[in-house]
Amino acid sequence: MTNSTHQPSSGGIKVESNGVNAVPESERYGRPSGLFPIWFSWNVSILGMTYGIYVYSLGLSVWQSITAGIVGYLLSCCLVGVLAVGGPRTGLPTLTQTRFCFGYHGNKFPTLFAYISNMGWKITIITLASSTGAALFTKLWPAAFALADGKPTLVCILGWFIVSLALTMSVAIYGHQLIMKVEKYIAWLTGFMSIIFIFLMLPHIHWDKLGQSAVHGDLLTYIGGVVMAMTMVGLGFLNYGGDFARYLPKKTQASKVIFWTTTGISLPVSILLVLGAFLADSNPDLSAAAAQSPIASLTNLLPFWFYVPFSIVIIVSLLAAAITGVYSSGLALLALGIPASRATTTTLNAAIIGFGAFYLMFISDSFLATFQSFLASISVVIGSAGAIQLIDFLRQKRLGWDVAMANKAGFGGRDGRWTALLALGVATFVGLGTITSGDPYIAHVVGFLLTEETRHSVFATANLGVIVSMLTGGVIYSLLTFGLKIELPGISSTQARSAPPVKTQKAV
């Protein structure tokens, strides 16, 4: 792959020039501890409380919910950290490095699903940020921004929608350097305000009722809680760990990359999960309301002096997640082979997110439930691809992390590696056949391997099929690659070795 020799400017922050090419060693900087704020600011959100409520709702005790959730977070976030190690070793975004495993063109299948999943969550995040800002204005200036029923006016919602989208795009389009600086300050701000929020929520927990419930889940239910926690947090980040680690020096210690990535994601959501589980166990009415409308139901409990600044912090934390997501989505489009710069793909992503969020807020009444079901379905592909890539790391390390493997056949890579694609295909079939969906239309294409009794079990409701698919893909690929020794090395002809390497996309 071609490497840029562009030296980073010593002046002010400029638009990032690197796209899906390998970042040259001359442009590497930073320490692995810098990964902590990027992930912390993304995940320190009031929504983390509802995750604890969801795990508890499976039929676990409060202490089972807490331990199952934390175990699930640590397992899935550690996987993200391991995949992030590929960033400094190759200088490539994760969805470009997966070409090593699936081949140049074969990689487009998992990349497409990863892109769709990322965009779906960003649409939801922009929607939440806009609605939170509109709710804040209706309380501050009801005469100007509230309707007779107390809901925000169309102008108020539309205004916040435009502001949220513009702020997200403005930072994301500049790229890695600005994002790393901005997210560091956001992490401090959101972390400090979240501590105050936690203390203000403690009086709403009925401590005398805590742990009094007779509910106690069996082993399968507990495993279901672990899996649910994994799917809610870590597994959604599998394809983006290397995007923010690739600017670290190549010799950066792997254990530190894994530690700071894992901690940055799991620490905030674990603390908030404990609070959510306590709330669900001792105050069922409030927990039920939070499950339906997490931000509104929980912020309404706050004193007005804190409600205003904390609402702003909620908006900031949501936009922090949107910024990093838009950045990674732009890299995903480049990995798909879209002939455009990273700045252009970021702009395209902003337009798609804007349209989706606009549809969600102003047109659809039921789109959210359908879309969330769809995201749960495609997580089967994402999780399976991540598991296969993790197994392939052993081969990539043995080959010296050669970035030429991300090229087309003839230039050090392959157009497709049938071993990885076969494993992904079988895993996807098994995964879709063993999960269920609350959407009546999507339900027709999933769960076809389940019996009628199993469809209503914890196995189905907790989407254990996602883990089954990951294990299936990993085992099949391991057997083919290391058992049968079908490694399929890159293809380099004599003519190709003397020819220039494949041109890679950069943001210029």
From TrEMBL:
Example of a GO cellular component annotation carried by this entry: plasma membrane
Compartment(s) where it occurs, according to its Swiss-Prot or TrEMBL record: Membrane
Keywords assigned by UniProt, alphabetized: Membrane, Transmembrane, Transmembrane helix, Transport
Keyword Membrane attributed: yes
Recorded topology in the membrane: Multi-pass membrane protein
A Pfam entry, by short name: Transp_cyt_pur
Regions that span the bilayer: 35-56, 62-85, 112-137, 157-174, 186-207, 219-238, 258-280, 304-336, 348-368, 374-395, 416-438, 458-480
Family indicated by similarity: Belongs to the purine-cytosine permease (2.A.39) family.
Protein name: NCS1 nucleoside transporter family
Protein species of origin: Cedecea lapagei
